[in-house]
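Field reference: sequence -> structure
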Amino acid sequence: MSKPTDIRLCEARTSTQYIRYRAPAKFGGRVVTDVVLLNVEVVVQTRDGRRATGSGSMPMGNIWAWPSLQLTAAQTLEATIAFGQRAARGANDYRGSGHPLQITRDLSQDHEAMALEVTQAAGLSEPMPALAKLVAASPLEAAIHDAYGKALGCNSYNVLGADYIDRDLAAYLTNEFDGEYLDRYTLRQPKPRMPLYHLVGALDPLTTADVAIPLNDGLPDTLSEWIAHNGLTHMKIKLNGDDLAWDVDRVLSVDRVATEAQARRGCMRWYYSADFNEKCANVEYVLDFLARIQEQSPHCFERLQYIEQPTHRDLRATAENRMHRAARIKPVVIDESLVDLESLLLSRELGYSGVALKACKGHSEALLMGAAAQKYGMFLCVQDLTCPGASFLHSASLAARIPGVAAIEGNGRQYCPAGNRDWTERFPSMFQVADGTLGTAVLDGPGLGF
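Structure field:
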């Protein structure tokens, strides 16, 4: 049934922005030195004539979303951007109306054909992966949700109930959600403060002895300096996944540096996560890693909160990689594997106990997967894509509105702080970190909150 709050899309337009990293970031054996943001603006109108403009922004993380062995990074980046632009043009042709949850679901039905159109036009030798399509379409999704809230004069997280959406969650997920709506799985006010998860990349220096050439740009060079600079209590450690000795030594080295830095500031509790970026061959690698950490440093083992995406993202093709034994020790979450409800359900069968939500996979998708994860009692976290500026605030708003998410990963301030310049004065509590936390209470405005 139609509702007076339903919107139609009037116009969608795109632009891009290039940002060079201040220092390279390495993950999963790949090095990233720059980023292209795809920005989308959408104009919408409600049935009763209220108009508003919403915006979305996201890094086109092709190195992460499309790690091809056949195509160059330049080819996959160009195709990812082209798909995002094509999706926006498709939104201009859309003639339906409704809640953003339904509109974005309708728009996604054309993604396969759009991706084929883009890859054929570029003469590419392989199809665009599902994850790359999600990333490229995500700024459009964000802009639609943002515009909807602004048209109604409401925060977008507060218009997710039966008064606004004409079909319950069973239409989007499974019959287990009959009669339920997203307002059951989101908060009406953002959490007031949340810890910041800092990334320790595989190339990042831990101490001054590791610094080959100081950056001299006013920001820290080493982990020790970052801990003091931001008062960090949460650190995500990027690992190789194919060199157990290196991975164990890296975590223990991080722990030694952190222990010394935290002692200087009188901090008694801090935490780690370990991200293998799908490079582990099997669960035995993860079990050996955990056993060695526990044996060599019980305190470090206790500080380890969860393990992220240890094995290949294609869960169906590698179904022998079951995580039950590892998940009994620490939560094991999927990230690259999580592209839809089917992948979430399969991950549970394979022993994964948690999910990493990301704004770059689409706002609607993040809300739906967040609801499913809560229903199934899974560990929840919200991960970054080295998001600067508006894209970081979008990611943070998800973390602040989804129950069970305890911290916010934010890497843009480390690698591409230039993208934060236009936002720092407007949201100082989100970009000027002194006590290891972010003041997320400010993310309560109309639309996505900022």
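Note: The longest strand covers residues 7-27.
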